[in-house]
Structures are given as structure tokens and as C-alpha cells.
Design goal:
Length: about 160
């Protein structure tokens, strides 16, 4: 269900998306409200689930996570509960950071981050290809990151 947000709520969200560590005082100055109502609005946005959480953006390469891939997964739909079983199994694999149901060439797309090619190969052959519900896997290896934004494309002004 879409939340009912006014211009002030959208301004708060836009500022928090780019800097979640902004102080309430600075946030209130930027949106033109006093600190108490600003804090109330932020709390309401959190309570209503519009703001889900706050995160640190971490450079994966600084942690030695040098391989980033996307994997197209086609499932074998002859088995009962294929969809649910697959989702449960990939939820337990920590290298998979994102999983989407898609249309087109495959049923799912996975975003996978690993230390190196050997770690990815191990994941591919020892975990992903061992999931009985999987019919076909297709790896899309990333070469470099051109754009990555966690900021949603909305503007309050």
C-alpha cells in the first residue's frame, strides 16, 4: 500500500537517502521545521515502514570481494512447490545478496558477490548447481561498475 506523503515527508526522505547520519537539528534546518516536529515525522516514516533501515555503504573491494556476478536461473517446474523451495534454498546462501523473480529468458536473477573466481566457481558447482529445482544457470560476469545508486528517483520540489 502506498503511503500518503506530503512535500515535507518527501524532503526528509530525499535528505536521509543521501546522508542517513544527518543530525535531526541539521535535517530540521534544511526542511524548514523545528527539531521536534522533524523528529516526529522521521519516527512516523519509520513506524509506517517507509524508512526500513539505515545502512553503511561498504566498498566490497576493500573487503577483498572482487567478483560480482548476476546469474539467470531457470527452474524445473515439473516438481511441486518448485518456486518456494528454490527461494528457501537461495535465502540460505550468504553470497547471494539479491534475488528477483523476473520475466523473459529466466525465472530468477541473482546478484552474487565473492572473494575471487575460485570462490565463485565453488559456489556455482557446490551450491547453486546442486539445487534440485534448478534446470539451467547462466552467469553474467560484471567487468566494472558504471553506476550504482541506492537513492530512489523521486524529488519533492
Amino acid at each position: 500500500m502506498e503511503a500518503k506523503l506530503d512535500k515535507t515527508d518527501l524532503a526528509i526522505l530525499e535528505l536521509l537517502q543521501t546522508n542517513s547520519k544527518i543530525t535531526n537539528l541539521e535535517l530540521s534546518k534544511r526542511i524548514g521545521l523545528s527539531p521536534a516536529p522533524t523528529l516526529e515525522r522521521v519516527k512516523k516514516l519509520e513506524t509506517n515502514g517507509v524508512i526500513k533501515s539505515y545502512h553503511a555503504k561498504i566498498d566490497r573491494r576493500k573487503l577483498g570481494l572482487n567478483v560480482n556476478t548476476f546469474v539467470l536461473v531457470s527452474l524445473d517446474w515439473k516438481k511441486a512447490n518448485t518456486h518456494e523451495i528454490f527461494i528457501q534454498k537461495v535465502s540460505d546462501i550468504e553470497e547471494i545478496s539479491e534475488c528477483y523473480i523476473i520475466t523473459g529468458e529466466a525465472d530468477f536473477i541473482l546478484k552474487i558477490t565473492c572473494k575471487d573466481l575460485q570462490a565463485y566457481e565453488d559456489l556455482l558447482f557446490k551450491k547453486l548447481s546442486q539445487i534440485e529445482e534448478v534446470e539451467r544457470l547462466k552467469t553474467l560476469m560484471t567487468l566494472s561498475e558504471v553506476k550504482k545508486s541506492e537513492v530512489l528517483p523521486f524529488h519533492y520540489s
